[in-house]
Design goal:
Helix content is about 40%, strand content about 15%. By secondary structure, the chain is an alpha/beta fold. It has a single domain, classed as Metal-dependent hydrolases (TIM Barrel). It has an 8-stranded parallel β-sheet. β2 (about 30-35), α2 (about 40-50) and β3 (about 55-60) form a beta-alpha-beta unit. It is globular, with a radius of gyration of 17 Å. The two termini are about 15 Å apart. The model has no long low-confidence stretch (mean pLDDT about 95). The structure holds zinc ion. Zinc ion binds near residues 92 and 202.
């Protein structure tokens, strides 16, 4: 049994085939999933979805790509959304200097606003960091009251992973770890301590090998991520599945019934 700790069930093509997606997840042993919000409307959609499905949880956040589009009052709105019982985290939030879709000062301000919200609510934070490691670490250092922090879809270096772990933060791996050219990331996957690792699809993006080029990603395919990381770590699939499942429940404080 596995949990997909980060997916976007509100994105196409997952929305259009949601029934099948949830069915295939169940068939693959993916018992829960967290649909991550990327702006106010998307967070609202994730919350609605979670309300209708006992095995779907939501997060509420503003992705750095959307930071430039926030309007006055966004923080109060996000705070109201975060109060929903199905919201298990703040984010995804952070800095993206690869695409730079939002001005960097706006990215930073919106990131800081969400870290303040996470501090106030005691909810964990899901970080999106792309080519912005030093600045993300610097901003995070200003918030000492954060409960738990995960760098989602980690694709950085071993040195960056060490810094993240030294701060007590977590790391989550996607299907990128299954790609043949991801040598350093595979090193990271071997090196991560067992109590600070999670896995995710980030679907509909980043479909893992061996189905990478054949189909869009979806929660059922987190099995391939688990299989590859277990292999890299030299542990049995079942053992690794149980470990990451327990970690995800602990990180997000999931209430399962
Ligand atoms: Zn994402």
């Amino acid at each position: 049994m596995l949990i997909d700790s980060h997916c976007h069930l509100t994105y196409e093509p997952l929305t259009a085939m949601r029934g099948e997606v949830l069915l295939r997840a169940a068939e693959a042993g993916v018992t829960q999933m967290i649909s991550i919000g990327t702006d106010l409307a998307d967070s609202r959609a994730a919350i609605e979805l979670a309300a209708g499905h006992a095995n779907v949880f939501a997060s509420s956040g503003v992705h750095p790509h959307q930071a430039g589009k926030t309007e006055a009052g966004w923080e109060a709105e996000l705070r109201a959304l975060a109060a929903d019982t199905n919201v298990v985290a703040i984010g995804e939030t952070g800095l993206d200097y690869h695409y730079d879709f939002s001005p960097r000062d706006r990215q930073r301000a919106v990131f800081e606003g969400q870290l303040a919200l996470a501090t106030d609510t005691g909810k964990p934070v899901v970080i999106h960091c792309r080519e912005a490691h030093a600045d993300v670490m610097a901003v995070l250092a200003g918030f000492t009251g954060l409960k738990r922090v995960v760098f989602h879809c980690f694709t950085g270096t071993l040195a960056e992973a060490r810094e993240i772990l030294d701060r007590g933060y977590w790391i989550s791996l996607t299907g990128v770890v299954t790609f043949k050219n991801s040598r350093e990331l595979q090193e990271v996957a071997r090196f991560l301590p067992p109590d600070r690792i999670m896995i995710e699809t980030d679907s509909p993006y980043l479909s893992p090998e061996p189905v990478r080029s054949r189909r869009p990603n979806e929660p059922a395919l987190v099995v391939y991520v688990a299989r590859r990381v277990a292999e890299l770590r030299g542990v049995a699939f079942e053992e690794f599945a149980a470990l990451t499942r327990a970690n995800t429940i602990r990180f997000f404080d999931l209430r399962l019934d």
